[in-house]
Amino acid sequence: MISLADLAEVEDIIRSVNEAVVLPRFRSLRDSDIAMKGPMDPVTVADREAEELLRDRLTAFLPGSVVVGEEAVSDDPLALRALTGPAPVWIVDPIDGTRNFVAGSSRFSTLVALSVEGVLQASWSYAPVLGRVGTALAGQGAWVDGAPARVAAASEPPALPVTTSHPVWWPAGYGRSYDALNAAGLDVRYFDACGIEYLDLAVGRRSAMILTWEHCWDHAAGLLLVAEAGGHVAALDGSAVRLAGGNALPFVASSDAAGNALIRQLITGSAQSVA
């Protein structure tokens, strides 16, 4: 469905949308450009305009396709039903790291993935200010900043940092798992921008990511990128991660299967010890 040439054309679309409506607002937002969807969950005029432009251009690029975007789902949760429908689906996060964008930090990105009946086909992760881009094509490989991407070599226990979201986003009781991971000698750190973190995992700067939520627009692009870079992804119960949700959480994206299993075992064991 998507060729290497198509991969480059979609990347051009994503870059052009950023140049048109995202970058002109970077560090130039007015108070009236920002609204709150919920506690600590801002949305800006750039998020909304970028998603609208991406919807128009991506569906024109692939006639018959549909878009599941973060802002559209925020307005109408039933839009998620498209993930399990017959049409090809573009999964879009127009600005991943909106809080960073609002604060004037360069650590934000645009995430796009293409899936068909829940199976990822291609993905794009573009951090315009940092000048980083990751692309992946199912069965063909992954590339970051123009070079083939490869996750870090396996080690036991994982030697590179294992990252997870800030505690403000943790579900009740997850702090016990964090303590168990540290006690086992893992270097656990917080991350601030999911899309950029997936880029770092795909190029061997991280051992693993532990994800405590499953919004498809945050993860779809990174999951394919890491998988095509040789990594491993599994829900807490070891099953494959489903884009439509309903996964056992947290799920783990890692450089290798053994490290993934160890992390999931430590998390599960910490939960059982207090059950």
UniProtKB/TrEMBL annotation:
Protein keywords: Magnesium, Metal-binding
Keyword Metal-binding appears in the UniProt entry: yes
Enzyme Commission identifier(s): 3.1.3.25
Catalytic activity: a myo-inositol phosphate + H2O = myo-inositol + phosphate
Enzyme class: hydrolase
Ranges annotated as spanning the membrane: none
Pfam families: Inositol_P (PF00459)
InterPro entries associated with the record: Inositol_monophosphatase-like, Inositol_monophosphatase_CS
PANTHER family attached to this UniProt entry: INOSITOL MONOPHOSPHATASE (PTHR20854), INOSITOL-1-MONOPHOSPHATASE-RELATED (PTHR20854:SF4)
Protein name: inositol-phosphate phosphatase
Species of the source: Catenulispora yoronensis
